[in-house]
Design a protein that fits this description.
By secondary structure, this protein is α/β, with parallel strands linked by helices. Helix content is 28%, strand content 26%. It is built from 7 helices and 15 strands. Strands 11-15-14-13-10-12 form a 6-stranded mixed beta sheet. The chain has a 5-stranded mixed beta sheet with strand order 3-2-1-4-5, with helices on both faces. It has a 4-stranded antiparallel beta sheet with strand order 6-7-8-9. A hairpin with a 2-residue loop joins strand 7 and strand 8. Helix 1 runs parallel beside helix 4 and helix 2 packs across helix 3.
Length: 280
């Protein structure tokens, strides 16, 4: 998966939990009393690493893998290489034990370890973490919000996805969150998937970046886009992707892909996209 670079020069490294999203677990609720003001990175198998801001995205928020406590060579290698790359040129503190600690010690240099008794949630470990964190400046709340929203956009839309979130962005709602720019809704952050659903205004932003675009040559009259008439489609589109439908270089609809971009162009029948909004 594509990741936005860490926010700031300091990273707190934590173990994953059985409960998802991680922040709903008892262990992470303890960690977050002190770590939530910093860039948090969670070591996890099978994904390797998960920045806190992506913990609610599919499939990270719902995977279920049996935990044995013992990490295989392949698991350590995948997590370790991702960890080393993500933490490059940063300062980091790790509150980990067991296989998580083994990964850190093998792939990171000059790491500060706060867990001394094998229990990251123990009073001693949490106190050590608390004292270490005092040495580093907290991140600005607004910067953390922008970083979270842009991280999700890059994960969902690719390298230029962060441009989906403008500097003036605001959010409204506590469960499904409306994403607003200049008082207009550009998308909805869906709590069930942790990903964005587009509005026509949001589609304009992606269209300007040539992201997830489907070109057609006819007027839309229904809430389904059928493959005949699709002239071009972004090769990166896969089923269930949010996509933008354009005609004559104008956004005419947004919706969710049923087929891949290649299939949309090649298919002679069938639904290509289920539309959410269209220009009428």
């Amino acid at each position: 998966m594509k990741l936005l670079n860490p926010l700031g020069d300091f990273i707190v490294i934590l173990p994953c939990s059985m409960r998802k999203p991680y922040s709903t677990s008892k262990s992470h609720q303890i960690f977050r009393k002190y770590s939530k003001h910093y860039q948090e990175l969670i070591i996890t198998s099978p994904f390797g690493i998960c920045p806190r801001e992506l913990e609610s995205t599919f499939p990270i928020q719902s995977y279920d893998v049996p935990i044995t406590g013992s990490w295989s060579f392949e698991e350590k290698k995948i997590a370790g290489e991702l960890l080393k790359d993500y933490c490059m040129d940063k300062t980091f503190v790790a509150n980990v034990s067991g296989g998580y600690e083994e990964v850190c010690r093998e792939y990171l240099d000059d790491c500060i370890y706060t867990c001394k008794d094998g229990k990251p949630t123990s009073f001693e470990s949490i106190n050590n973490l608390k004292e270490e964190l005092k040495k580093f400046p907290r991140l600005n709340k607004r910067d953390r919000l922008l970083h979270e929203l842009r991280s999700i956009a890059i994960y969902q839309f690719g390298e230029c996805g962060d441009r989906f979130i403008p500097d003036d962005v605001s959010i409204k709602g506590r469960y499904h969150k409306k994403i607003l720019s200049n008082k207009e809704q550009i998308g909805l952050l869906n709590a069930d998937t942790g990903l964005y659903s587009l509005t026509l205004k949001g589609g304009e932003i992606l269209k300007d970046q040539s992201i997830k675009v489907v070109e057609i040559n006819f007027d839309l009259t229904t809430n389904s886009l059928f493959s005949p008439g699709v002239e071009k489609a972004d090769d990166s589109i896969i089923p269930k992707d949010e996509v933008v439908i354009i005609r004559n270089d104008e956004v005419v609809a947004v919706g969710r892909a049923v087929l891949s971009g290649k299939e949309m162009v090649e298919a002679s029948k069938g639904i290509a996209v289920k539309l959410r909004q269209r220009v009428k």
